Amino acid sequence: MRKIFLITLIVVLAVSTQSSQPIASLTLHDLQGRQFRLTDYKGKIVLLNFWATWCQPCRTEIPDLIKKQREYRDQGLQSIGITYPPETVSEVRRLTRKLKMNYPVWLGTRATKTLFTSSETLPMTVIIDRDRVVRDVIEGIMYPDEFEQKDEPLLSSKPARSRGHAQRIGRADSAR
Question: Please, what are the domains in the chain?
Fold first, then answer.
């Protein structure tokens, strides 16, 4: 019994330590080929939403992300869509126009997604706080109650003054 408790404690500590460290810089390109960095959004609550044009649950979730971006933009929310391959720029562009997406869309790779999880699940949303710390990874559709529970408290928070002592997680400055 004691051994099970100790193993459980070690696993919980490992997971909580990993999720409270700043992420490494992520650099990707948008549909026009312009380069963007996750560090461009420092001080914002970022929702990195991995999706694909062929993924029906992703298409179902996008209107809610559009609504949340419009509703919480002034409080510092920044949604960023990251496509998951295989995708063509024309397919992605067509869907973003059709759905009138009001947030940036970056062209992702399998390596980009593996910075956060090895799972193949789509959609997937990574919640990053104002200090670039990954707070949660939601596999599957992010439901309104999850947003209220996990994102709304972060929107009312202020960035910490110094996090220089924390180690960065992630494997690369650029996932291409």
Answer: 36-155 (3.40.30.10)
In three-state form (DSSP H/G/I as H, E/B as E, the rest C), the secondary structure along the chain is CHHHHHHHHHHHHHHHHHCCCEECCCEEEECCCCEEEHHHHCCCEEEEEEECCCCHHHHHHHHHHHHHHHHHHHHCEEEEEEECCCCCHHHHHHHHHHHCCCCCEEECCHHHHHCCCCCCCCCEEEEECCCCEEEEEEECCCCHHHHHHHCHHHHCCCCCCCCCCCCCECCCCCCC
- With 0.70 as the threshold, say if the pTM is over it: yes
Q: For 104-123, how does the pLDDT look when each residue is reduced to its tens digit (9 = 90+)?
A: 999 998 889 988 889 999 99
